[in-house]
Design a protein that fits this description.
The complex is a heterodimer. By secondary structure, chain A is an all-beta fold. Chain A is about 0% helix and about 55% strand. In chain A, a hairpin with a 2-residue loop joins β5 and β6 (about 55). Chain B has strands at about 5, 10-15, 20-25, 30-40, 45-50, 55-60, 60-65, 70-75, 85-90, 105, 110-114. In chain B, about 0% of the residues lie in helices and about 55% in strands. Classes of the chains: A mainly beta, B mainly beta.
Chain lengths: ~110, ~110
């Protein structure tokens, strides 16, 4: 158990809908990262937050957004969902604000868009 | 662009048959190389961090090594419970790199049969 929690474990929704994925980092970690894992793309970095502020952006679509709250939990919002958004979404956390150092991953949310 | 390539894609070993997994990388300014283990449908589990060429880390039957261009994960006398996908990731600090993000390889799927 990494100490990173994610909810829900599974989500099934229809195209065009909007969903919210939630992540709580390990105790003491200030950075939260979101990754998407699909069969054809592997693990892809989406976005990083540190202590409530956006720190780095990766391959995140404009339809996706994220935020980190004062209690350090983070939410990833996916809107206007398409079939291709079906994937595993992972949250990771680390203590570092610079982003360097190991990241600890949560169990993931499996999103299925039908 | 920063790249991480893992080989082989899949590896089948008999219990007790030692072998090595390879991770080659091309990044500008390596800050760290990470090995993770991932079981099907679960989040990556952190194994090792390597920071400089010549460094080695060990954990039970696993030993990770790092050179200037590649890393190896050596598995000694594997057991069926070592079956998983092993992922390699790098962090870079050079121009064009997103601070702190992990660049993942596609992984090596290891199967150890009794």
């Amino acid at each position: 158990d990494s100490g990173v929690t994610q909810t829900p474990k599974h989500l099934i929704t229809a195209t065009g809908q909007r969903v919210t994925l939630r992540c709580s980092p390990r105790s003491g970690d200030l950075s939260v990262y979101w990754y998407q894992q699909s069969l054809d793309q592997g693990l892809q970095f989406l976005i990083q937050y540190y202590n409530g502020e956006e720190r780095a952006k990766g391959n995140i679509l404009e339809r996706f957004s994220a935020q980190q709250f004062p209690d350090l939990h983070s939410e990833l919002n996916l809107s206007s969902l398409e079939l291709g958004d079906s994937a595993l979404y992972f949250c990771a956390s680390s203590v570092s604000g610079t982003g360097f150092g190991e990241q600890y991953f949560g169990p993931g949310t499996r999103l299925t868009v039908t | 662009e920063d790249q991480v390539t893992q080989s082989p894609e899949a590896l089948r070993l008999q219990e007790g048959e030692s072998s090595s997994l390879n991770c080659s990388y091309t990044v500008s300014g390596l800050r760290g190389l990470f090995w993770y283990r991932q079981d099907p449908g679960k989040g990556p589990e952190f194994l090792f961090t390597l920071y400089s060429a010549g460094e080695e880390k060990e954990k039970e039957r696993l030993k990770a090594t790092l050179t200037k261009k590649e890393s190896f994960l050596h598995i000694t006398a594997p057991k069926p419970e070592d079956s998983a996908t092993y992922l390699c990731a790098v962090q870079a600090s050079g121009r064009g790199s997103t601070l702190g993000r992990l660049y993942f390889g596609r992984g090596t799927q290891l199967t150890v049969w009794p």
